[in-house]
């Protein structure tokens, strides 16, 4: 989902009454970011409070490449990383993940080995259907074991776009919340649904109901579900005791447009890129009785902050033995403070850009290669900013391209290198970047090696279901990441 | 000002608290249009309820050209046109225009000859400063006579961007409202301020206060002023008896970006074009006690509807002796009805496109000429949709380019000509267009002839001020309209 997909963020169909209401009862973040313009690294960053380049969710197979956890990935979240649910356990929290995990699907990466107490969902994207020969269909887990596979036991009709998954995930959420409330148990629910990822789906009740087509149907179903979750918290009388945050893991995937693509508003490009369209996210904080209703924040925020902020809410400190990139947003959320902090825009192993205040400096620009582009793979459809949305990797490390995101949110007009404004801004930014670079210790890259043998052939529990498949011979290779 | 310039429409700086509040207390129109992507024709359409091609605010000097009323224009609003204030007089209204008139500056076109009782403002744009030899500075009128000129008696500092004009216009508005309330006089106030037109200005108090630079300062001052006007109505106890509508005359002028250019959100291109960015406008209706608070409407609306709607509010009928294009929006505003009606997108003498429901069919596409474009004149900066944002006039009358504005608000993905959806939609649209074309009787074009002798050399009242200038010899010529 992208920044522009909600009514509160200016989507012209304004079809998200529940999220818009959530914003009007809570706080809208206009300058909130992901840590990476792709799913797996973004989610790893959210749960570790650390940039993907630290927590290992990146590749060194080539320069500045997006990488994630497809079925043949060998790596995953390292044991050395401390995840939010692991830490929350110390404060007595019960932790559940519903939906897409995406931090590795091999046994050692299982979410219940990393602090979660319960899991309902899937380790990978819902791509498919597969033939279970070249590729197995993606398993759906309940806790330790698989209970079926997408397209087999969990239907997704690619022709009609119908799938009941969001409803199933919603029910799981409501049940989990009810259970914790009944036992007066503090809980952390990570509701990480697959929708609106392509192939886009919605349940029958929502199909054909949006002005925006199937993608809009999916957005409407999410909106409706979140409304139901918030109402459930209120009905149970725990809304004033429950902090809720809504955001997305990357900008809308414009390559899927118009049929399955969302909106990044007026921002440049989309998912896969380090332009604003790829990394600025819709974000809403909700906590009745604590967050002043109708608040709007320009605090530069990041999904990694949810790690630190959640710990703070639980009365815990972030680990002191490692660099944590996420900050505690509570002063911004509860007292309206503005905390000075930079945003780093990474693509794989490269810091592509940095935002300090309203300035954003690009040290590297790239959309994707000419080769891909000529095949119709376009991360910036209809947009073309000369020298900015480049189809070769352009280095600007000695003279970064500088944009003022207040006057020019669309990153169309780089400031003149000769201007005083450029000089002044870059002096400040250079210090921030210098400090970031000298203290940067990259983690062991997890997204370098692929092997068809590690795919979801025989997940735990497959025997009971008669759904075990025979893996091919192991043949580890460098993963190929085209962009 | 463009669709995307208000917080309520997703401007990322969200700096328009008063307009956003006006929307939350009233009704937000998401699908509201101007009748032309340029100032004069748009304003003529608003005041006559008729398309510019009917009321004469267009040119036949060349095909599909934007034209307006610069100082050397010979034409203006014809006497045969019936303007809103003329008609409102019949219901006892006192009518005032504050700000830019733009329907012709020669004596016969004076607003007080066309139904207004009072005028404070100027007949043309605030371009300048001029040397009073090749070009006179633009006069500012109070009622029948000029009281000074821009850049002379009404300062605009192009270096700092400082000008007090919006404050002056605000005070005029507040005073006029107070006076009418005191005498319990029904009134129509057309508050047609110059800001945010380039050269962009703001008063000292607002300069440097916006994230968005000078343009944002101007938007903030407008926002603040409208807040003050609404509060004034409330303070005087007449808010439940006063219908207020906020909109703009064309999309944001992207050629002025980034320093002086606004935002059309995610829509394509800007002012001068018949893409959504040129013609879809921010729009808010406000009438406490009558319009349900927080309303959102997808009614296809047009500035011409303000003519018919205002008459309806005053208990009057639109004239029956001519084609009126504006419709009465009250059923949409008060009862939330959706009235089926098309939107026509004209550029000069050509119907470029039509919107019916969520479909928009382009019969002609053009941004501007290659010649202009090569000189850096760009109405679609950073945007380029192949075959759509064309730099030659492309005719599609036999096979219109069709877009679904729900799935594709950015007009990036024309529907396949072979699709069932295309066939079905075009069948419906063809009927609408056919009916429109066969009943179209174009008015006498007013924007064809230019003559330096007719400029604002010696406006009425100039003698008293010693500000009369000597006109050159009359030399009428065809006006040149490049785009």
From TrEMBL, chains A, B:
Domain named Sulfatase N-terminal: residues: 1-315
Residues noted as binding Ca(2+) in the record, renumbered to the chain: 39, 249-250
CDD domains noted in UniProt: GALNS
Annotated catalytic residues: 39, 102
Main localization of the protein described in the UniProt heading: other
Record field: catalytic activity: Hydrolysis of the 6-sulfate groups of the N-acetyl-D-galactosamine 6-sulfate units of chondroitin sulfate and of the D-galactose 6-sulfate units of keratan sulfate
Record localization: Lysosome
Organism superkingdom: Eukaryota
Database matches in InterPro entries: Alkaline_phosphatase_core_sf, GALNS, Sulfatase, Sulfatase_CS, Sulfatase_N
Pfam families: Sulfatase, Sulfatase_C
EC numbers on record: 3.1.6.4
Residues with the 3-oxoalanine (Cys) modification: 39
Cofactor binding mode and count: Binds 1 Ca(2+) ion per subunit.
Cofactor field: Ca(2+)
Keywords on record: Calcium, Disulfide bond, Glycoprotein, Hydrolase, Lysosome, Metal-binding, Signal
A GO cellular component entry from the record: lysosome
GO molecular function, one term: N-acetylgalactosamine-6-sulfatase activity
Glycosylation site residues: 164, 384
Family: Belongs to the sulfatase family.
Subunit structure: Homodimer.
Protein name stated in the entry: N-acetylgalactosamine-6-sulfatase
Species in which this protein is naturally found: Pygoscelis adeliae
Highest classification ranks of the organism: Eukaryota, Metazoa, Chordata, Craniata, Vertebrata
